[in-house]
Amino acid sequence: MNFSGIRQAISSSTLTLNYNAQRTTHSINLSSITIAMAFYKSSLEALSPSDAQLFEAYGRGKPLTSLFPTVHAAIFHHARQNQHSIAVRDLSSSPPRTVTYGTLVKYSRFLAVRLRDQGVIPGVKVPIVVKRGLEMVVGIVAVLMCGAQCIPLDGGVPEETLQHAIGEVGSDVILCLRDTKGRVDAKDKSVIVLEDIVQSADAEWEAIGSIEDLCFGDENSGCYVVYTSGLSLDSHALTNAY
Fold first, then answer.
1. How many CB atoms lie within 10 A of CB 79?
2. pLDDT digits (tens, 9 = 90+) for 45-96
3. Where do the DSSP E strands lie in 75-122?
4. Strand 149-154 with 86-90, pairing
5. Residue 15: pLDDT band with limits 50, 70, 90
6. How many beta carbons lie within 10 A of that of residue 160, not counting itself?
7. Is residue 125 classed as helix, strand or coil in its secondary structure?
8. Which of 27, 75, 161, 178 has its CB 3.0 to 4.6 Å from that of 231, i.e. a possible disulfide?
9. CA distance 228 to 201
């Protein structure tokens, strides 16, 4: 959507902006996308007409067709081309960790096999209660390999909203970290700790060519789930396809 399209979308909505000195606030409950449009519009209006034209001219490139139908298909491609290339740099640990594409695929496939054994199939939604880091990436890729949809949930969100999201999805499997395991209601659910998966996978070796049997999904499949209204108790899950 170009700037004029965003302007029209904002003006046709019921968004109300209140300008007070250097502060900009919004009133009314809108989706995060509409709010983002509002701030985008506000930022562009601060530019001079000539700078706004430059932003429109150079702020987006030529539309291209994706070479891969899914995220994990792209990862598999790079793993086959050069499995020793760096795929993940985890700066959350000390010292920082680096993981190659080959190792990322090994970790993810190791977890995906176990998820499939526990009934995670295309269409299933799997909560991932984590903080940013290598294990989060492994969990997301593994869920996608199964053709399922991941629901990334920050381990620091309030308890009430966390349990609301998990309960609404009704998944039988939850992925978490050691630090977030205590926040997950494990009644009648299988809780998988991602650090344990990584450690177990390190003890095994699998060839890159053995991943084809765990590459479910296409460009029309659900990829991940987000919640409207910032995970408030009246929010609803919104599925995003590739």
1. 24
2. 788 888 888 888 887 778 888 888 888 888 988 998 999 999 999 998 889 9
3. 86-90, 97-100
4. unpaired
5. very low
6. 11
7. strand
8. 161
9. 36
Domain ranges of the chain: 3-58, 71-241
Q: Token pair for residue 234?
A: 């009246």
Going from the C-alpha of 6 to that of each of 25, 38, 55, 109, 175, the distances in angstroms are 19, 8, 14, 41, 37
| Mean pLDDT, residues 98-120 | 92
What 8-state DSSP symbol labels residue 217?
A: -
Whole-structure pTM value: 0.70
Per CATH, the architecture of 71-241 is what? 3-Layer(aba) Sandwich (3.40)
Task: Flag whether pLDDT at 13 surpasses 60.
Answer: no
Burial of 210 (0-12, 13-18, 19+ CB in 10 A): exposed
